[in-house]
Design goal:
Largest sheet: 3 strands, parallel
Order of helices and strands: HEEHHHEHH
Structural class: mainly alpha
Radius of gyration: 16 Å
Length: about 150
Amino acid sequence: MTDDVRALRDKFGLPGMKILQFAFEDEDSNYLPYNQPYNCVCYTGTHDNDTTTGWYATASEKARDKVRRYMNTDASQVSWDFIRTCFGSPARFAIIPVQDLFCQGSDCRMNTPGKADGNWAYRMKKELLTSDVAKRLYDVTKLYGR
């Protein structure tokens, strides 16, 4: 993002974007929740990123180690670790791709920028939205006041 874009965003009070998947490659990334301002949107990932499960599977060992230490997890359900971290961030808004609710892998990715074929084909199957998933989402939403 350029300085002009940042100035325009700030002039109009628009929220910035903080994508958690970007937070774990650098030592003190401004994407980490403790570096996030209130006026931002925290995403686990976006439509242009791999799913969180897919991202974690291909991330560097350094990034995976930082995820496990930062989130105090064994990463067995890393998507939900990211959801909890996103919802617990100071960000004004929290958004998660539906694929992360279901811990889906790279085969359920929405879009790969620069790739002409195979994008925007993902469709959520209604049987995935079970009462267990709904309760888990409700609980984490309530816990973090979202």
